[in-house]
């Protein structure tokens, strides 16, 4: 494998490791610190910029590998049709099969690398949104607890109990209706 495909493979392996770390079940405090560091650090921003540039090169490699795979597949098909009436050479067939395998491997390698970069980016921002939503939820919960204590929740509980008792009494009254009259009201 050439050096640029080896580097693409290392990038793919690093992406897989990063994805496993991102979706690992970490405690909230640890996850918040890690994602805050990743989203606010200038060093991480520079690394992300370099990775974006490298993904441009991987996209170019993907286009080249795809073109090469189509060319090798066409050569293989033409060799099969030409060799149908003639002599079969095992070395030529093996060479074509190896070239087809390598071109397909390169397409899959670069394609998966590009796809996983999109998945990683989206997963990162989804988890970051989740952390911000959890922070807002905690603030609202704390705010509602403090406001309910300040408003005198004992009076609210008493009025709610009276309303529940009234609704239960109304429910009992509906239960005492004769069945025939109930069905008659529904039919009308």
From TrEMBL:
Keywords: Endoplasmic reticulum, ER-Golgi transport, Membrane, Protein transport, Transmembrane, Transmembrane helix, Transport. It is found in: Endoplasmic reticulum membrane; Membrane. Residues 1-139 form the BAP29/BAP31 transmembrane domain. The chain crosses the membrane at residues 47-66, 107-128. Its main location: endoplasmic reticulum. Pfam families: Bap31 (PF05529). It is a multi-pass membrane protein. InterPro entries: BAP29/BAP31, BAP29/BAP31_N. Belongs to the BCAP29/BCAP31 family. May play a role in anterograde transport of membrane proteins from the endoplasmic reticulum to the Golgi. This is Endoplasmic reticulum transmembrane protein. It comes from Hohenbuehelia grisea.
